[in-house]
Amino acid sequence: MTDNSYNEMFDPTGACRAHYGPYQHWLTHMPEDLLSRKRREADLLFHRAGITFTVYDDESGTERLIPFDPLPRIIPAHEWTMLEAGCRQRVQALNAFLDDIYHGQRILSEGLIPAEQVLANPQYQLAMQGVTLPHGIYSHISGVDLVRDGNGRYCVLEDNLRIPSGVSYMLENRRMMMRLFPELFTHNRIAPVDHYPHLLLETLRSSTPIDAPCVVVLSPGRYNSAYFEHAFLAQQMGVELVEGQDLFVSEGRVRMRTTAGPRVVDVIYRRVDEAFLDPLAFNPDSMLGVPGLLSVYREGGVVLANALGTGVADDKSIYPYVPEMIRFYLDENPILDNVPTWQCRDPEQCRYVLDHLGELVVKETQGAGGYGMLVGPAATHAQIEEFRRRLKANPAGYIAQPTLALSSCPTFVEAGIAPRHIDLRPFVLSSLQGVRMVPGGLTRVALREGSLVVNSSQGGGTKDTWVLEEDVSKPEAPSC
């Protein structure tokens, strides 16, 4: 290792960690040219399957493959048990928070979160005030981004409650690994993830009291960057993939156009931003939504997953308060802590950030995909000064965090096997049956040497994530 990050595979003495032992033995006997051929085979198969994404600021507008790394990230059983409990706890508290701010607003009246940070938030939906949702669930599908600091401690970097994406890559990465290296799954007890579509369909069906509900996946269309995922999940669940033009409102219900005539839709798994969902209520120029959808939704005629207004809970300016939400709503101490965060809306904290821009990571509170952020240690003087001007002009639009030495995992790059920084996004499903997860998640990897930005839009790739079904090592990684 060339930095002070936590190495997932090797301890500080250079010895292989026990849970990586069988894999290391296999890897040392694997010819490097064979790994190269396997990766080329994976790229070809992904391309044939249409597993691509679009980078919107790319002038060419071309679709790209998300680079796939054939070296997995391995998590021992005891670590996963802790991570699973922590993610479940966090999502339960966030759903309770959303239900509260659209009803009694207890947490605001108690002064635990400044009311203006919630009620004046651009993601707060006034139309959701007083609307009662089945089981009080707002975020049916959540993504929790986890990182490891230099001491190997897990922390939550951010929450994704609006339209979390990437689960199709988790599933396809596992399928690809099983196709390329079937012997690994014979000799290692790796927990399966292929039942995720079944759990997702159960989650969506149980979100309504209607028996045998009609579930659809609503997509913006084939030009959306995540269209492959929309089509993949619809196919895996055995439900219809629709666009706004396929749906209409009639007699207080949402209906789908079919060759056999209109059919009532009960649950919409929406992959369309809420600003474009209903041109009568939100953006009047939207061609992606369904006129009248909000009215039907408010009256309980259809379920939207995720609910409208969830974005306020994953706003980066609300993120620092999640540990307090856990204590307030669940009367529990957080299992997973946050990364230390400065809120630039606070003048004193903003002064600190401005004085230390070269040391910090600064993010837009409404940003996503790695855009609109500054990684101080990797930025030029000109970039830092430009960001300083932006921060001074709109301090409430930014938060800052220390530059973490994200954990590193062996990765197959052009120069051979080398450490690269990673994160982990487990997917959390909330329903009447409780809060459930499959053992694993999407591991994203920063393929550029020294880079800490793992987003695919910024050149990152993905790995298969193995959760071992039994421990072969002693506990090493407590939470923050």
From TrEMBL:
Pfam families, A to Z: CP_ATPgrasp_2 (PF14403)
Xref: InterPro entries: ATP-dep_Glu-Cys_Ligase-2, CP_ATPgrasp_2, UCP005522
Coiled-coil zones: none
Alphabetical list of PANTHER family matching this protein: BLR5612 PROTEIN, SLL1039 PROTEIN
Protein name, as recorded: Circularly permuted type 2 ATP-grasp protein
Source organism (scientific name): Kushneria phosphatilytica
